[in-house]
Structures are given as C-alpha cells and as structure tokens.
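Quarterly update, task 2.4: 5-O-phosphono-beta-D-ribofuranosylamine-bound model.
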Amino acid sequence: MLTRKLAILFSGNGSNMQNLIETLHQKVFQDSNKQNIKLEVAITLCNNPSAYGIKRAQNLGIPCIIISHKDFSSRCAFDEAMIKALESHSIDLCVLAGFMRILTPTFTQHFPTINIHPSLLPAHKGAHAIADTFNAHDPYGGVSVHWVNEELDGGALITQRSVALESEDTLETFEHKIHALEYKLYPIAVLQALNLDITSLQDSPQENQ
Ligand code: GRF
C-alpha cells in the first residue's frame, strides 16, 4: 500500500501533536482515485528540550528529534539543521503544531509545510490569538489551517472554522472551545493538504445536532 509520511514539529504542550498521531498514524484513507493510502507520522521534532510534548511523543512510540534553535546563530542555520535531520525520513508533509519559530524559505521550499492558528485569519495573527479574540469581544473566534510561507501566519488558507464567543464565556471556556475545534479540524486539514478524502473524519449528522 502507498504511504504518505508526516513530520510534526512542536515547541511545547503538544496536545495537537498527540491528537494528530492518535487520529492519523497508521490509518488508511483514500485518494481521488479511491486508492488506499496509509498515513505514517514518521518523526516528530521539537526545538525546546523541556517541552512536555516530548513525553507525549515518547508515550505514543513516535521518535522525537530535539534541536534547540538556541544552538544556532541564524534562522537559516537552524532550518538547515532541521532539514538535515528530517531528510532521511522521506517526509511528504511537515505539520506545525504549536511550533513557535518562524521558518525561512530555505525550509518551506524544501518541505510543504502547514500550520494551525487559533483565530479566524487574517484576524489576530501572532502568539496570543485566543486572548486577543476574547479581549476584542469579537462575536466569533475560530481556527485556521494554512500553508506556511515566510510571512507570519500569512500563507494560503486550507480551511477555517468559526466558534461563537458568547457573553457567558470566560477566557478559559473560550480557550477550551477553540482547542476542541482544533482537535477536530487539524486532522481533516492534513487530509485536505494531501488531497485525501476527508469523509471518514467529518462530523456525522447526529454530532451536528
Ligand atoms: C494551539 O492553540 C495552536 O493553534 C497554536 O499553538 C497551540 C499549541 O497547543 N499554534 P498544543 O501544544 O498543541 O497543546
């Protein structure tokens, strides 16, 4: 059976990484010709040696490469080290899941790369998107998945879904809603990025009621 290989890059907690592994790793999906394609999370990579996500990857039995960006004098040198480390794994798609470094074109031109961002882009780019949406009293927040280019949170959108910010929401309850939406949307977006059929991961009509 044909296999498509993923690398997941993260910097911290790693809950999206764990969810992607549990939802996609070693699972079979279909391409547009109804051909079966197995997904494999071949490797994870973390730039922060004290990240909790490293433990999650270990517990899930997926190898994790640790490369601290602090050991490199430039973004480019760090990106080149990551490329070198990932090269032997025949990666089809790099998936950023809370990876807190801006990538250079050196990296994104080498590996197709996608990212998840917890806002309705282009609104609220940057590292505090959930709090920024909450504090702006926007009627809706959301989650966006996009291709990564050299502009922060700026590449072409793959998919986006909204969630209501209700008057009774606290920052905590709103964050919880956003993360729940991330866990639903990111696996679907990975399939979309790979041109695979998303039907098996979509909500059943009952779930939508
Ligand atoms: C998520 O909210 C993601 O959208 C953002 O960083 C957070 C990572 O959380 N890019 P986790 O490490 O996956 O728990």
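Highlight for this quarter: Residues 43 and 63 are 5 Å apart (CA to CA).
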